[in-house]
Design goal:
Blueprint lengths: L1 H42 L3 E9 L4 E9 L11 E9 L2 H4 L3 E4 L2 E13 L2 E2 H9 L16 E19 L10 E14 L13 H19 L6 H12 L10 E3 L2 H33 L3 H5 L1
Helix pairs in contact: 1-4, 3-5, 4-5
Amino acid sequence: MIKKLLALVFLLIGLCIVAVVVAFYSIDAIAKRAIESGGTYALGVPTTVKSANVGIMTGTFGMSGLNVANPPGFGSSPFLSLGDAGVAVTLSSLREPVVTLPRLSLDNLSVSLEKKRGSANYNVILDNLKKLNSGSTSKSSGDGKKFIIRELSLRNINVGVDLIGGPGAIGDLTKIKIPISEIKLENVGQTGTGVGGSGVTMEQLTSIVVQAVLAAAAEKGGGILPAEILGDLQGGLANLGQLDKLGMKVLADPKVLEQLGAGKATEAIEQGKKAVDDAAKKVTDLIPGMKKEKK
């Protein structure tokens, strides 16, 4: 009997060890799937992650190569891409249903805004985010884990705007770049619409990040963005309204933005003059005798 009990104990210990080892080696894959699932559900387009690394012993988390695909009908480049993400977290907090993070840093973000033939990729994304207003994430495959982030920092952001065939889209003016140094949000998951201090899900966190980048682009690109795109962004963000209590701060080099705005205006004038000259030449060529006299 004693031998049987000892064998059973050793068997249970062995099973526990195997379970720990399996969990240790699969936790990165679990985290990767949770991020991809949350992003895909929130944004309505495929979201992929190249790698995720959960340091069980060190209490750290890292992620790289996040890509959010463009909606169907738009360019092949991603709507959003992220270079790196990093956070320090205690092992004990990872076991809690609501994980508190002192700081989450997302670095090297690129966002591509595209509008053509009256439709825009950012409008599709913003429309998809509306389903989170009710707080419902029942269709996602997340584990229900929620997060409170004391400081969310988005750094080195590049917003590209491509206005294809729209009003005022002449030559190089169809492409605009808006560089943003940093966006800071405070107490994410503790304040804000729809969270009530109970934390945010991965889907809601994805929504907040995208909204913050688009809001920063509208704020700092006011003198650069075409009026129709600026109006689209402001109207779409107003319908979501999750950033009003998060103390958002946007840092961008005012001299760079001023130069971009001045360059856009100068180029527009030059393009306008060229268009007028070309039109005048065509009219002149149509008048009998004018072309010959000019020669």
